[in-house]
Write a structure and sequence with these properties.
pyruvate-formate lyase- activating enzyme, Rossmann fold, 2 domains, six-stranded parallel β-sheet, alpha/beta, 527 residues
Length: 527
């Protein structure tokens, strides 16, 4: 059923639950007491950022940030290191004993909190190192708040920084790009993590980079050099097995950029009996055998950046993508192999008008996307989109805390800022409603119950999520559902292995109809 294009603007947006702990960081202690400094001890901090009540609070504790645990893995002896994530609602970061070095990751949306933490620790005698994407895109802004900047690959830089601290020769600027052999990086130190605070601690990166350079994506940031790199498939499988979790989340930018590699990875994963999810681009469905291999190796869900249902928008974003009129067929390939689809859509492109919200929601429901994520188009500093908006005088302000894809920070071409924000809020309100959730249930009746359970926990339970996060019960609450899904999926794999692969003839060759459909579906060559 096609929704009325004016429905979003006739709908009142309901107020939502947002406790102070999810909106404001914990206050720092500005008392006069100076804790004792512990030499050769480092603290790595993921700063607090405000949560959007339209989305699930649960998404912030599905997996830990891999950037900091990877840096921790590069910590040389005899240094000790600890990890603290302010978003786990366990109060202010530790300070007794005072770490000699504090490393803080900086994103533009929580830059001010990072600077506040940096100032607090520096005033008490710690050396503060700031890194992350914002340090790369806006180093002149970040530098005054740090004793040293780590620009680029922190795994390479961290041991050198700590050695220089020991030698009393810490420099203000360190830089290394992501051009080394990724297989040689040390494993992330997941033992530092509070396992009970996350759905799974096995967040893994098998590949680094992406074959696309979309104009709005942080990978297009000026100065960022990140060629596509892959780790050995068996190495990745061993790392997963060592962590002992049933569910694995690949946080690669695009796990499917090299299809032959993903085939190898699926063969390695099939041996260890896990379930997993990952972000891929839609063109991975060019190879139906690969989709089948993903399912047989335990893939239960993919995050796909559809971005828009407008080919003009995709071309403007410079993304290599199938045409929008071929999206539905490709979604069916995932569904035919039991893989759920979390579709990501960007709102506010220059070809978007008032009908974009109802049209996108209708398409999501018609194609039964199990989950959908929405982002207001946001020009990140240093990206081609930012330069384009800046040149056209379309930026509304430079308050980085609102550059979070949940606020309008530019002048849309065919919408007012108020219309764009209202439409964004309506999308979540509509798609997270029970009628929409039910309409998008899987066609396989055996998958309906776990889908509804996931929808209830993930999309309809922010009060419950606040309780789980605060009391470190996330893993306890989710583990039964994960294990149920893993056991169910093992039976599904056995049945799936006996079925023919959609789109292939009995010899495993793409059928003539499939080949003719795929021909000419790419609308942009990318960059």
């Amino acid at each position: 059923m096609t929704l009325d294009p004016e429905l979003p603007f006739r709908t009142r947006i309901s107020p939502l639950f947002l406790p102070r702990e999810m909106a404001e960081p914990p206050p720092l202690d500005h008392g006069a007491t100076r804790p004792n400094l512990k030499r050769r001890h480092a603290l790595l901090i993921n700063p607090f950022y405000p949560k959007d009540p339209r989305t699930s609070f649960g998404k912030h504790v599905l997996t830990p940030t891999l950037a900091l645990t990877s840096v921790a893995g590069a910590t040389p002896a005899p240094w000790t290191v600890e990890y603290f994530d302010e978003n786990l609602l366990q109060g202010r970061p530790p300070a007794d004993p005072l770490p000699e070095v504090v490393g803080i990751t900086v994103h533009l949306t929580f830059a001010q909190r990072a600077y506040e933490l940096a100032r607090w620790y520096r005033e008490r005698g710690s050396f503060v190192v700031l890194g992350g994407l914002h340090a790369l895109s806006c180093p002149e802004e970040v530098a005054p708040h740090a004793d040293a900047l780590a620009i680029g690959d922190g795994v390479q830089l961290w041991p050198e920084i700590l050695r220089d601290v020991e030698a009393g020769r810490l420099r203000p600027h360190y830089e290394a790009m992501y051009e080394t052999d990724y297989r040689l990086d040390p494993p992330a130190r997941r033992t530092l993590l509070p396992r009970d605070s996350f759905l799974t601690t096995t967040s893994v990166i098998a590949t680094r980079g992406c074959h696309n350079r979309c104009g709005f994506c942080y990978l297009a940031t000026n100065g960022l050099r990140m060629p596509y790199r892959m780790r050995d498939a068996e190495q990745v499988a061993r790392e997963i097995s060592d962590d002992g979790q049933a569910y694995v989340v690949f946080i690669d930018n695009n796990l499917g950029s090299r299809r032959e590699y993903l085939h190898e990875l699926c063969a390695a994963l099939q041996k260890i009996g896990i379930i997993w999810s990952a972000a891929v681009t839609l063109d991975v469905t060019d190879d139906p055998r690969l989709i089948r291999a993903m399912a047989l190796s335990g893939c239960t869900g993919v995050f796909v950046g559809f971005e828009s249902l407008s080919d003009a928008n995709i071309q403007h974003a410079r993304k290599r993508s199938p045409r929008a009129d071929d999206y539905a067929r490709r979604v069916r390939l995932f569904h035919d192999n039991g893989i759920q689809v979390n579709g990501s859509f960007v709102l506010g492109f220059d070809d978007d008008r008032r009908d974009v919200f109802a049209r996108t929601a209708s398409w999501i429901e018609e194609n039964r996307l199990e989950c959908a994520t929405f982002h207001i188009l946001t020009p990140y500093p240093g990206t081609p989109l930012f330069r384009e908006m800046e040149t056209a005088d379309r930026l509304l302000h430079r308050d980085w805390s609102r550059y979070d894809t949940g606020h309008v920070v530019f002048r849309p071409k065919h919408l007012t800022p108020e219309e764009l924000l209202h439409g964004y809020h309506w999308m979540y309100q509509h798609l997270f409603s029970w009628p929409s959730i039910w309409q998008r249930r899987p066609s396989d009746v055996r998958a309906v119950a776990p889908y509804l359970a996931m929808s209830l926990l993930y999309k309809k339970s922010n009060r419950f999520w606040h309780f789980l996060i605060k009391h470190r019960l996330t893993h306890v609450a989710w583990h039964p559902l994960v294990e149920w899904n893993r056991v169910r999926h093992q039976g599904f794999r056995r049945r799936l292995a006996a079925k023919p692969i959609p789109g292939l003839d009995p010899c495993g060759v793409p059928s003539q109809a499939e080949s003719s459909v795929r021909a000419g579906t790419v609308i942009s060559a990318g960059v």
